[in-house]
Model the fold of this input.
Amino acid sequence: MAVKVATDYPMFIDGAAATSVSGAWLEVHSPATGDLVGRVPAGTEADVDRAVAAARAAFRDGRWSRMGLPDRVAAMNRLADLCDAHADELALIETHQTGTAYKLRRESDFAFASDNLRFYAGQIRHLEGKAAYEYSGSHTSMIRREPIGVVAQVAPWNYPFWMAIWKIGPALAAGNSIVLKPASATPITTIRLAELAAEAGVPAGVLNVVTGRGDVVGAAMAGHMDVDLISLTGDSETGKRIQTLAANNVKRVHLELGGKAPFIVHADADLEAAARGATAGTLINGGQDCTAATRAYVHRSVYDAFLARTAVLFDGVRVGDPMDPSTDLGTLISQAQVERVDGFVRRAEQAGATIAAGGCRPDVPGFPNGAFYRPTIVADCAQDSEIVQNEVFGPVLAVLPFDTDEEALAMANDTKYGLAASIWTRDVFRAMEAARSLNFGHVQVNDHLMVTSEMPHGGFKQSGFGKDMSSYSFDEYTQVKHVMIELTGEPEKPWHYTIFGDKPE
Ligand code: NAD
Done:
């Protein structure tokens, strides 16, 4: 399959390719081979100004927000069709940018992205709000659900295209204009997305993409006085910075941040299903997934059996050439990420934990510079250790035993994060109690990782606030206006005396 490799990919501003006013470029390299995948402009604050001005002009004249509904729906459906038609090419670029296995990109992200878009194309036709009614007795009240205006969106590197879709789908459906910034390591498929949106009929200025560093371009977007909402998917520390910058004009803030998902295995669970669920749940995208299973709490009576079976599955995972269809796990995003992950594992080992699988860099023939790391299980960790408390963002599962249900729930909730959790049991009472007690935005019973376009994804606590996917995300990108129409036509109202004059007899 042919792909444009080692070429320049300009940004996309006001419906056209654009270079940065800086004239500088950033290189994108494959974490598997080290090869140059392409170059993108090193955007600046001035580029953000240009993109915001284009977005504002588009919003002001209503070329998208007031486009006839059938045309807007059709454009979004055409974009979904174009994503499908270009899925092979896009998945290939994504594989080169991220180093992750092609089969994951092609069969997962790109299969799901167009479904997300189609959901939002349909959502525009189903606006929610209170029914119009005479709540005051003498006025008809009604709700208008309107777009917010210029929305700035900052995306991460782990699922570059898919996260961009999660952001633009609801924002476009709601009628906003967008300035989108991809992560510096993985910007190319997002530029292609903007080009496809233009081809689908999204008018110029409605979807702009500015590339560049987070602390330059992202920060300029968050602090921009003419941006009405800033949305980030990224690290919790980045979220805190953005929240501070956003205060200058009281922008709305939408934050999808880090996670540290617990995975609770009870003695009555189907252990084979749990072991398989832990393997998929931990190793998805090399563990570079905010909902990945990271902490397995296993009942002491089945602890050894679960550990032994999961270690066999981890050891059987095929790490190698991302383009080989038999490869399960490609690289992490960079050598720096491998260093970071290995640092967590080494320090846990020094603190007394046991390496039950992996715990090292594999030797992958033909890829001497590849950022590979073996699927790793670290057993007998301490609850307060950094590997249990902090986001590792790599293919690493920490495993701890528990004795009672209360202890398992308390340890699972003992985290600053609150994005996703799962519990494995055949006892419906136990499952329902866990669903109530686990302090996470998404709790699953007997599975991990599943998401669906119709239901929300989003965190509690330092995992952020605001939802992705579903009608809840659509609502985040709208504002509610109350319109009241006086019905009596009387110049003097019965309540006027409270402000001037005497109470009517
Ligand atoms: P990151 O915070 O380093 O970067 C995310 C984006 O923010 C990038 O585009 C980056 O350029 C930009 N950025 C960095 N510093 C900035 C600043 N000072 N001001 C404005 N923008 C800035 O995160 P990452 O390493 O790209 O992604 C991994 C993180 O994202 C993990 O913590 C992961 O859990 C989280 N994540 C969360 C979700 C979710 O839905 N909750 C989904 C995917 C990833």
User: Anything to note?
Assistant: Residues 102-123 form the longest helix (22 residues).
